[in-house]
Amino acid sequence: MHLPPNGFKAALRDNRVQIGLWLAMANGYAAEIAGHAGFDWLVVDGEHGPNDLRSILEQLQALATSPSEVVVRAPVGEKWMIKQLLDIGARTLLIPMVDSAEQAAELVQAVCYPPHGVRGMGAAIARASRFNTITDYAARASDEICLLVQAESRAAMADLERIAAVEGIDGIFIGPSDLAADMGFPGNLEAPEVQSAIEKGIATIRAAGKPAGILTFNEALNRHYMALGATFVAVGADVTEFSSALARLSRRYKEGSAAADGEPSTGY
Predict the structure, then answer these.
(1) Which of these CATH numbers, 3.20.20.60, 2.30.22.10, 3.10.290.10, 1.10.3720.10, describes 7-255?
(2) Known catalytic residue: 36?
């Protein structure tokens, strides 16, 4: 059996814009629905979503036939955690709170097998190698593993040029909410100072020849960042879209009829 290509990694390398969605429901059924909604990439969130290794595995399995690439955000960039995520079949990782080039270089080591890294040699019994049916998995794994790091602090932005220069980093994702908070503007990522830092960050990442990414729930901002050169942009989250859709449905019937709101009447 051959190692399937990582289309998301190829798209970033080719500078093709990729539109993504955050998955925080920690549920395989909900993930499968999102997987057929047309997004290029989906983030299974292990940092703020209520996920553990088994729920992440469930979602990887649910999305196995999805055309969307699955990106797994680890809670932290610990080597043992990265090893487990890779072994269960995650091949695109997003690591939060990367503040320096040295930290980024350690993460590259964590996703590579010796002699180029320190990843443990256990994939023969793991889902990543299709349980050893991809016999050359260890030799070829790094070709399809995509490592994304999050810059979301003043320290990271100050060291962004060096982080972007680390070989083996496939993209840098700016975390606007944490960056805004670290800059003294919690909950206000539209503050001019924060926007200036984000715009400068995108320019720095792009000048280094690396793809830049970001997430906001503001369409105008997202389109602005894409115009500046951001190529992997997450535009929403399953929990917020689900909550908003249910609230709209409830309001239609509590505040007036569906027909009064111009909604078509359909049955099952």
Answers:
(1) 3.20.20.60
(2) no
Q: How far is the C-alpha of 96 from the C-alpha of 80, rounded, in Å?
A: 15
- Given 2, 36, 48, 116, the catalytic residue: 48
The tokens for 94 are 């997003």
The first and second tokens of residue 118, run together, are 């320190």
pTM above the 0.85 mark?
yes
When the pLDDT of each residue in the chain is averaged and rounded to a whole number, the result is: 95
Neighbour-count burial of 266, counting CB atoms closer than 10 A to its CB (0-12 exposed, 13-18 middle, 19+ buried) = exposed
Ordered DSSP codes for 159-210: THHHHHTSTT--EEEE-HHHHHHHTT-TT-TTSHHHHHHHHHHHHHHHHTT-
Alpha-carbon distances of 12 from 16, 26, 96, 173, 256, rounded to whole Å? 6, 26, 19, 12, 46
Bond before 114 cis per omega within 30 degrees: no
Question: CB under 8 Å to 237, separation ≥6 — which residues?
Answer: 21, 22, 23, 24, 217
DSSP reduced 3-state for 264: coil
pLDDT of res. 257: 55
Nearest-5° angle of CA 66, CA 246, CA 219?
65
Rounded-to-integer distance, Cα 51 and Cα 26, Å: 5
pLDDT < 70 stretches in the chain? 257-268
